[in-house]
Amino acid sequence: MAKNSLAKQLPEDAAAQPRPPKAVVSATKAVAEGVDKLIHEPIRLGILCALAGVELMSFNELKKLLDTTDGNLSVHARKLEDAGYVGCDKRFEGRMPRTDYRLTDEGRTALEAYVNHMDSLIRHANRVMKQK
Description:
The chain has helices at residues 6-9, 12-15, 22-34, 37-40, 42-52, 59-66, 70-82, 105-131; strands spanning 57-58, 86-93, 96-103. It is of the alpha+beta class. The chain has one domain (35-131): Orthogonal Bundle (Arc Repressor Mutant, subunit A). Strands 1-3-2 form a 3-stranded antiparallel beta sheet. It is elongated. It starts with 5 loop residues before the first helix and ends with a helix. 13% of the residues are buried.
């Protein structure tokens, strides 16, 4: 069987479908260009949102809240720590290790910018959908 181009493999009606409106295309580009990809990952976004409302949160509290594994939380928290978005304090309580996380000023600013950007994209999408 000979290899066909993608256009030849598509049903005729699929190839003839209209292109999305320019407003939708521009909103899609805005998502790709304007979103802080470090924050956009669900676990990292969850960490930042959880920390936004409290002074400190322990590793175990975050793990339970986000319903994730030790390894997964550790990797994502480290990326946020490396970016300066969260601070990490490790100590012992008795003989048990305790790790607490806090949102830094830089992290709060980045989260606020992310939320504002996503809010503007959602408002734009609502306007586009209402026009149809």
